[in-house]
Amino acid sequence: MRGRLLHGRSTKAKTVILGGLKDHLKTIRRSRRIVFIGCGTSYNAALAARPLLEELSGIPISMEIASDLLDRQGLIYREDTAVFVSQSGETADTLHALEYALENGALCVGITNTVGSAIARNTHCGVHINAGAEIGVASTKAYTSQIVVMAMFALAISGDSILSQARREAIIDCLFELPCKPHLPTFPAHSSFCCKVRGVLELDQEMKDLANLLIAEQSLLVFGRGYNYATALEGALKVKEVALMHSEGILAGEMKHGPLALVDENLPIVVIATRDACFRKQQSVIQQLHARNGRLIVMCSKGDAASVRTGGSCKVIEVPQAEDCLQPVINIVPLQVI
Ligand code: M6R
């Protein structure tokens, strides 16, 4: 992740300025709902940002996979804001969904990585994520940058409510602590500047060793919930797309309703259990998986290895702790490396 994503958009005054949206902020704040539309990784990035968007905006947030919206001819109203998330800005399903939302009179916002792309051109307003070109088929840095931009979108539409001021400031501070390259003039002069993404990239060798252990497996499950349900879906998507191995992202809250039947001592399962409001629930999931002799790889916050090992032995990956809503930016990196 590069610092230029934040360049000029977030300041020491702890506000977020997204120039491409400023003339439409009032309309967005008055929307009946905000619908996020995308495919694949871009959809997952929006899913990761949804809890924060709901929390800070107070506006109902819906999620649509572009092809499904079109198949159903789902409802889009003129009082809606429809946000189109796409790395390339050219994905056919997302573009058709954009035409459909325009026909239905919604305010259309683009979040893309490609200046001049069809989605950037045809939306009413938008934000570029400035992640740099994605060279391979797998979208990786675009995913983390999309989450960051959607967090900034949430901050921009949340206005200046006193109630959420401390939360907004904590998120902005954490945004500055993520990038690998602190070369911006706007970076605060923190004496203890910590590059959390660099911290997690230091796990590179550990993740490669883990990948070597998994190479002969047929399948990998990834359990996540809350902010990290999207991490589970996206981690599984990367394993499928890059390692050509079956993998499934599972909402941990649904474990008892089917997936538990698959658990045995052979099938590797990644459980994402970093510190947030869902941590205790994830500890209980880990215990239930241990009770079925599950072969677990648990991702937890630094210092939490002992708290997630209760109930049995497992491989533990400790990652740097970030603000809960930005933790998905950190947590996806080891799964991308695998
Ligand atoms: O360019 P887009 O973000 O619109 O592409 C959407 C998906 O096709 C894309 O994210 C796909 O899932 C990725 N190749 C996954 O790495």
From TrEMBL:
<keyword id="KW-0677">Repeat</keyword>
<dbReference type="InterPro" id="IPR035490">
    <property type="entry name" value="GlmS/FrlB_SIS"/>
</dbReference>
<dbReference type="InterPro" id="IPR035466">
    <property type="entry name" value="GlmS/AgaS_SIS"/>
</dbReference>
<dbReference type="InterPro" id="IPR001347">
    <property type="entry name" value="SIS_dom"/>
</dbReference>
<dbReference type="InterPro" id="IPR046348">
    <property type="entry name" value="SIS_dom_sf"/>
</dbReference>
<feature type="domain" description="SIS">
    <location>
        <begin position="24"/>
        <end position="163"/>
    </location>
</feature>
<dbReference type="GO" id="GO:0006047">
    <property type="term" value="P:UDP-N-acetylglucosamine metabolic process"/>
</dbReference>
<dbReference type="GO" id="GO:0046349">
    <property type="term" value="P:amino sugar biosynthetic process"/>
</dbReference>
<dbReference type="GO" id="GO:0097367">
    <property type="term" value="F:carbohydrate derivative binding"/>
</dbReference>
<dbReference type="GO" id="GO:0006487">
    <property type="term" value="P:protein N-linked glycosylation"/>
</dbReference>
<dbReference type="Pfam" id="PF01380">
    <property type="entry name" value="SIS"/>
</dbReference>
<dbReference type="GO" id="GO:0006002">
    <property type="term" value="P:fructose 6-phosphate metabolic process"/>
</dbReference>
<dbReference type="GO" id="GO:0004360">
    <property type="term" value="F:glutamine-fructose-6-phosphate transaminase (isomerizing) activity"/>
</dbReference>
<protein>
    <recommendedName>
        <fullName>SIS domain-containing protein</fullName>
    </recommendedName>
</protein>
<feature type="domain" description="SIS">
    <location>
        <begin position="210"/>
        <end position="338"/>
    </location>
</feature>
